[in-house]
Hints:
Structural class: alpha+beta
CATH architecture: 2-Layer Sandwich
CATH topology: Translation Initiation Factor IF3
Shape: elongated
Number of helices: 2
Strand content: 35-45%
Oligomer: single chain
Helix content: 25-40%
CATH class: Alpha Beta
Number of domains: 1
Largest sheet: 4 strands, mixed
Amino acid sequence: xxxxxxxxxxxxxxxxxxxxxxxxxxxxxxxxxxxxxxxxxxxxxxxxxxxxxxxxxxxxxxxxxxxxxxxxxxxxxxxxxxxxxxxxxxxxxxxxxxxxxxxxxx
Length: 106
């Protein structure tokens, strides 16, 4: 599956528009990890616990978006965008979306 944030794929042409592909994941930290992360946040620097859980969230959302695109018959997703939001204290949602298309080499 080709993924790109651009509206085209160099060397390919779009031959079919399949629709909006999307994927979402909602995650939170374990209470103990969250407390440790909050303590680190008070000191400053990177909070590795949040970095790790957000990386897992991003991969899961991407996997779900690609599965959605494949179900429409797409082999690429163009215009990929990410959006995140805190939906509760310590709970984050990550949405990824783009245009599912079929591309062929030029």
